[in-house]
């Protein structure tokens, strides 16, 4: 059982963001190829150039974009599918967000509960922290995990009212830890194995009821005082069963997004909480709502929040509903190729060489933060950074200019069907950025036949390639999409 101990300060959620990849797999397309599996609805699919690190960067950018002036004093990153072992994955996120070098970046990997554990530590800690959960879910072709899973990330900025306006005050919660093996996967294996379903359901229901009862008792609340409840976990029957046993009013249980997104593992509790807060944000009736978050993983974690008036004036960067409603389809065969399950013929060109670690260190601000230089005398923006100005030729009279949030226009482009890529063809475009700066840059999250001169694009952090186990991260450009533009595209 846990209650917040913060010396009287109001502590809770200061900001939040979620990220859902652009591609969608229609579950009906699985069975005709795999011979089994599938189902109704769609699931989110990370692109060939995305991994849990890049997904986490995008969710964190959405959270910080909606919370101007936020300065987290720790970055906590949780994932079940880390891009690296033996080194910290959160450091790449740290660099992409351009956080101060004194801000620690910590990983917690290996289980869905890792994200809930980091959130609890942050909520009960003393300083502000950005808690990022990210996951790419899969399984064998035609499996239930492949169909029910989803890819995505969430970011919760946690702190006290001394750090900024609290959107949702943390009231308290409870943990129930239990050791039982109902799902397991050895390191390096792509397939999770499951014990008999009823066994896991019984264990989770017992842990969930205990944590729920303890959380209500520790906060002095009753079940009928809860206005919104999020229940998530990888055991679908246990999640549904516990939801029916919470004793909350009808209509309180939030949509689990299974039909449109899937279950995004370590990220899902944050994604669902963001969805609930999105629905309340900007409303005069936003304050005073009790929100419960329940995570079933190796036991249970329960968090209870009460929304504040600050949520009524909060504007999310990109709501979960907007992202879930957008996206474009991907064929099941390409999905399998992107996951490495189906090996297809690559372009007959040399694969990329291993990225130089020493060169990357020398250009960290540019490579990870997309920081160019601007001539102090002429105002010319240089991408990549330069020492000599293109206007006037002045030398070493530059200042850094962060460009990751810039929007630009495609001036010209080429479709390269010969260059090596895990998903050819490669589309390169020359982009003129608003306010100055021009750069040839790869486009992503679009089909080659869709690009046009004059397209508006924004930057996204991606994986350029991997060689000798070293991931080469940099920025690409994707189309600026609005709800109206996506509707027109679908029509």
Automatic annotation (TrEMBL):
Annotated ChsH2 C-terminal OB-fold domain residues: 407-462
GO molecular function, one term: acyltransferase activity, transferring groups other than amino-acyl groups
Pfam family, any one: OB_ChsH2_C
InterPro entries associated with the record: ChsH2_C, NA-bd_OB-fold, Thiolase-like
Designated name of the protein: OB-fold domain-containing protein
């Amino acid at each position: 059982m846990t209650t917040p101990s913060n010396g009287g300060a109001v502590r809770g959620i200061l900001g939040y963001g979620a990220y859902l990849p652009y591609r969608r797999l229609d579950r009906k397309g699985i069975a005709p190829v795999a011979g089994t599996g599938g189902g109704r609805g769609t699931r989110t699919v990370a692109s060939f150039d995305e991994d849990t690190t890049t997904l986490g960067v995008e969710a964190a950018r959405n959270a910080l974009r909606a919370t101007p002036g936020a300065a987290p004093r720790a970055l906590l990153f949780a994932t079940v599918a880390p891009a690296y072992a033996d080194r910290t994955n959160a450091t790449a996120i740290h660099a992409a967000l351009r956080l101060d070098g004194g801000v620690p970046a910590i990983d917690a990997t290996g289980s869905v509960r890792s994200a809930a554990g980091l959130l609890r530590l942050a909520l009960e800690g003393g300083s502000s922290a950005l808690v990022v959960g990210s996951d790419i879910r899969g399984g064998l072709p035609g499996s239930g995990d492949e169909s029910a899973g989803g890819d995505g990330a969430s970011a919760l900025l946690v702190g006290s009212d001394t750090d900024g306006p609290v959107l949702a005050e943390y009231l308290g919660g409870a943990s129930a830890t239990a050791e039982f093996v109902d799902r397991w996967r050895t390191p390096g294996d792509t397939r999770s194995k499951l014990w008999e379903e009823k066994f896991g359901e019984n264990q989770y229901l017992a842990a969930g009821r205990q944590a729920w009862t303890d959380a209500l008792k520790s906060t002095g609340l009753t079940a009928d005082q809860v206005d919104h409840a999020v229940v998530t976990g990888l055991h679908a029957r246990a999640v549904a069963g516990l939801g029916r046993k919470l004793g909350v009013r009808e209509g309180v249980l939030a949509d689990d997004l299974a039909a449109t997104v899937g279950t995004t593992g370590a990220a899902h509790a944050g994604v669902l909480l963001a969805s609930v807060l999105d629905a309340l944000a900007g409303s005069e009736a936003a304050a005073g709502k009790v929100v419960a978050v329940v995570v079933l993983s190796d036991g249970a974690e329960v968090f209870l929040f009460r929304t504040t008036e600050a949520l009524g004036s909060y504007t999310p960067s990109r709501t979960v509903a907007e992202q879930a409603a957008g996206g474009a389809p991907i064929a099941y065969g390409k999905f399998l190729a992107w996951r490495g399950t189906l090996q297809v013929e690559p372009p007959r060109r040399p694969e990329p060489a291993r990225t130089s670690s020493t060169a990357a260190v020398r250009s960290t601000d540019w490579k990870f933060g997309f920081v160019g230089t601007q001539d102090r005398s002429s105002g010319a923006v240089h991408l990549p950074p330069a020492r000599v100005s293109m206007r006037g030729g002045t030398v070493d009279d530059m200042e850094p200019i962060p460009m990751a949030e810039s929007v630009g226009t495609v001036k010209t482009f080429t479709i390269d069907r010969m260059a090596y890529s895990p998903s050819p063809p490669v589309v390169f475009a020359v982009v003129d950025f608003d306010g100055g700066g021009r750069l040839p840059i790869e486009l992503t999250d679009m089909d080659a036949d869709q690009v046009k001169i004059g397209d508006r694009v924004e930057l996204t952090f991606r994986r350029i390639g991997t060689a000798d186990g070293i991931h080469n991260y940099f920025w690409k450009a994707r189309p600026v999409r609005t709800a109206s533009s996506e509707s027109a595209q679908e029509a």
